[in-house]
Design a protein that fits this description.
Elements (H helix, E strand, L loop, with lengths): L1 H14 L9 E6 L21 E2 L14 E7 L3 E9 L19 E7 L8 E8 L4 E10 L2 E5 L8 E7 L11 E9 L15 E12 L2 E6 L17 E5 L2
Parallel strand pairs: 1-3, 1-13
Antiparallel strand pairs: 2-3, 3-4, 4-10, 5-6, 5-11, 6-7, 7-8, 9-10, 11-12, 11-13
């Protein structure tokens, strides 16, 4: 019996879910100067933005843990998002709008303008290292099943990347890539009015990195899903718009 207990104890500990970290919060500052969407992140406004660094909750994955830092800003016309991605092997094959870009080296942002409807609907943008956009409206069908309407296309989105290395060359060592995107407020008008200082939305940031079988997902607010995955809107973090 004692031997059996020693055998079962590690199994029981291994089966325990990981502790739920606090929901993170992010203050989205107002841009202090114009932002040019070119993927270079050299506009002065980005220097004033807060940073959000992604983490690696899923130890079962075998891909490299490569750093990702995101920043958000806003003005009267747009929400701006930038990503800095360390990457020693930049790969992205998909080129058509609404291709499943998460299969490439890609970053994501999920946005819910109405935090009170925590799990009902949110807008997703998934963008690969060559600047291909997969955008959709995600809607809950049941508590455990969601639909992703990729025929939902955002209007006026500007998107650009810059690459420090060589895209899709597996024989050399790259350094990383950046992505910049602007999302006009008109895309949220059916869900929410244009934000003003003090408004609170919810969102999450994610990255898919590497080539199968050595892939790695990183995330800003831990989804707490057992398998690597970001679609847990009840775990989205908070964005508060500030002047």
């Amino acid at each position: 019996m004692r031997a059996l207990l020693f055998c079962l104890l590690p199994c029981a500990l291994w089966a325990q879910p990981r502790p739920a970290p606090p929901i993170p919060k992010y203050e989205v500052k107002r841009a202090t100067s114009p932002i040019v969407i070119d993927g270079k992140l050299d506009d002065k406004a980005w220097a004033t933005a807060n940073t959000a660094e992604l983490t690696f909750p899923w130890e079962s994955q075998t891909g490299a843990k490569q750093k990702t830092v995101a920043r958000l800003l806003w003005d009267d016309d747009n929400l701006y998002v930038s990503y800095e991605c360390e990457d020693t092997d930049i790969t992205a094959q998909l080129t058509q709008r609404d291709d499943p870009t998460f299969r490439d080296d890609a970053v994501e942002i999920f946005i819910n303008p109405i935090p009170a409807q925590q799990t009902t609907a949110y807008i997703g943008l998934e963008m690969n290292a060559r600047g291909t956009l997969y955008d959709y409206l995600s809607v809950a069908l049941t508590p455990s099943r969601r639909a992703f309407f990729k025929r939902f296309n955002l209007e006026g989105v500007k998107l650009a990347t810059s690459i420090d290395g060589t895209l899709n060359d597996r024989t050399d060592k790259d350094r990383g890539w950046n992505l910049e995107v602007s999302i006009p407020w008109v895309n949220f008008q059916e869900l929410s009015k244009r934000p003003t200082p003090g408004a609170v939305w919810s969102f999450n940031l994610n990255r898919w990195d590497g080539v199968e079988p050595n892939r790695r997902m990183s995330i800003w607010s831990d989804s707490l899903l057992e398998q690597p995955g970001p679609h847990a809107p009840e775990r989205f973090g908070e964005m508060r718009f500030v002047q």
